[in-house]
Amino acid sequence: MIRVLTVDKANEKIFINIEDVLYFCSDGNYIDVYTENETYCIRMTLKELELKLSNYFKRVHRSSIVNLTKVKSIKLESNNRSFKLNMTNNQEVVVSRKYQPIIKKDLNRVKHCEHFK
């Protein structure tokens, strides 16, 4: 499991503690890394990254992985069949239907609650 990500920003290398990452969004071989106040870009596939992350990081969409410890709230859509995760930086991340049952279970485990069924 990785503990620190190294990212390039301008002319410097920045070291980001993995627990400071809120979520990742991919576009091909590039991944945007979102922290509380910054966004960085790394060159890697989401699949490669997913294999290196701890169990607190879960895929929620084919192009997104979230840090479950950084989920602030869950927003149910009007159809009550889909939902978004509101992260600690107030950004929303869509959870696809494919990943919803897994995310519900893992959020209950990580957040130590039984209210989200």
Automatic annotation (TrEMBL):
Instruction: Write the record's keywords in alphabetical order, separated by commas.
Output: Two-component regulatory system
The protein's matches in SMART domains, at most eight in alphabetical order, are given as: LytTR
Source domain of life is Bacteria
Keyword Iron-sulfur in the entry? The reply is: no
**Per the UniProt record, which residue ranges are transmembrane?**
none
Residue stretches in coiled coil:
none
GO molecular function terms listed in the Swiss-Prot or TrEMBL record: DNA binding; phosphorelay response regulator activity
Q: Which Pfam families match?
A: LytTR (PF04397)
Q: Which residues form the HTH LytTR-type domain?
A: 5-109
Q: Does the keyword Secreted apply?
A: no
Cross-referenced PANTHER family:
STAGE 0 SPORULATION PROTEIN A HOMOLOG, TRANSCRIPTIONAL REGULATOR-RELATED
UniProt name for this protein: HTH LytTR-type domain-containing protein
| Biological source species | Paraphotobacterium marinum
